[in-house]
Specification:
Layout (H helix, E strand, L loop, with lengths): L18 H7 L1 H10 L15 E5 L2 H15 L5 E5 L11 E6 L5 H10 L5 E6 L12 E4 L12 H16 L10 H13 L4 H4 L3 E6 L3 H16 L3 E5 L15 E6 L6 H7 L3 E3 L9 H18 L22
Parallel strand pairs: 1-2, 1-3, 3-4, 4-5, 6-7, 6-8, 8-9
Helix pairs in contact: 2-5, 2-6, 3-5, 3-8, 6-10, 8-10
Length: 326
Amino acid sequence: MSAANGTSAAAPAEPGSSRTAVEIASQPDTWREAARTLERHTAALPRRGERVAVVGCGTSWFVAQSYAALREGGGHGETDAFAASEFPHGRAYDRILALSRSGTTTEVLELLARVRGTGTATGAVTGDPDTPIAGLADAVAVLDFADEESVVQTRFATTALALFRAHLEAENALPAGVAAIERAAADAERALTAPLTEQLSSAEQFTFLGTGWTCGLALEAGLKMREAAQAWTEAYPAMEYRHGPISITGPGRVAWVLGEVPAGLADEVRGVGGHLEAASAGGALDPLADLVRAQRLAVLLAEAAGHNPDRPRNLTRSVVLDARDS
């Protein structure tokens, strides 16, 4: 984002100068822009007290999970999150909020078309207004300043979550302990320049963990590493780590907690020879900014392995299904 839009210049991109790295580096600015322009987007967002379902696919589904936990945890209203293909059509909601960067995701469009005219309010958040989603939702929040050229989603997803956080903040509905979006953006600026240690860059396996709203962030961190770097990653709620996933941890492997570390977990990771990464524990770094560190690591590992982080194998920018497939 340019200084002409009232924002500061983005931090330098990673050495490889991939488009993904450039987009990652712009996130503090796009988060601030989401907060600054909140009023123009609120028509698509939930009203206090509404029973809401948030839907998306892939990264957007993980963002939906984080937002659902934040909104309900802050007392703004009962909120569920679903992969668009798994939406329970027999369940009543006051509003469905759909996320689609491209505005063309088949499962999201089919869901909006099916509920149109049923009396359920619908909103959408997208990066491109000139797409089918604009004609299917009652109101659309367009985050075109955060849209991306890369196949891998980074800044659009985090900016959508920044918008949701800014809205909850404006309505005094942020859960206790969740920082204002300006603090998150400042932390993201630090995350863009923080060293990525040898323990991270040389690790052979990563398990991302979260609690509450950061469970969605953990899932997204794991997905970014798989998509861009083809890395071996898993993701779980942090308290579930002891119930099986700890078996994979050992020397050369990382348990990365986004947010607070449950009591005793650090000792258990170290006890089996793993490395605990917990930069956002104790409020030292906003968990959303810690996700930025995982994005940077994904690019670093991708380039080290000779992969193109902008164009990962087997992926396209949007999943548009033929009629026979949907």
